[in-house]
Description:
By secondary structure, the chain is α+β, with helices and mostly antiparallel strands. The protein contains 4 helices and 10 strands, in the order H-H-E-H-E-E-E-E-E-E-E-E-H-E. It has helices at 3-8, 13-23, 43-50, 167-175, and strands at 38-40, 55-56, 69-73, 81-88, 94-100, 114-121, 124-131, 146-153, 156-163, 178-179. A hairpin with a 2-residue loop joins strand 6 and strand 7 (124-131). The two termini are 25 Å apart.
Amino acid sequence: xxxxxxxxxxxxxxxxxxxxxxxxxxxxxxxxxxxxxxxxxxxxxxxxxxxxxxxxxxxxxxxxxxxxxxxxxxxxxxxxxxxxxxxxxxxxxxxxxxxxxxxxxxxxxxxxxxxxxxxxxxxxxxxxxxxxxxxxxxxxxxxxxxxxxxxxxxxxxxxxxxxxxxxxxxxxxxxxxxxx
Length: 180
C-alpha cells in the first residue's frame, strides 16, 4: 500500500510511513528485469532492485534513517516500482521520500490535503500540500503539520514529505536530492 493511499484512509504520518517502509524499497543500476520487492540498506542496492534511476537525499538535516529503503510494486501500475525512505522519528520530526517510475501516483484516488502553494527548484515545478485546516487538525500556518511536495520528472513521480518541519526545509530537502 502506498504512503499516499495510507494517508488518504486517515492513518497518521507515522503509521503511514512505517507501513510504507515495511512494504517498499529503492534500487541502483537499471537491470532489464528488476529484482523482487524488498528492503535495502543502500540506495545503490535499492536502485538495482527498482530498475530505474533513483534520487537520494543530499541532506537529511542530521535525521537518521528510520529503516531501510523499501522497493515495492505500484498499485495503479503493477509493472512499475515504488521506492520509499524515511528519516527521523515517526513521532517527533521527519522527512520522507517516495518515488516511482509510473509517472503518476501509485495509489488510487486523490491525496487528502490542502494545496498550499507551488515551488520551483532544480528545473522542476512542484505542488505543496498539507494536512491542515480541517476540523481537529492544526492551522495551515503551523509547522506542526504534515507536508507533501509533489512533482514529476522524466517519467518518474516524486513525493517529498515532512512532519513537524518548515516548508522551506522541505523544499530545500527536495532541491538537494542527488542521483544515485
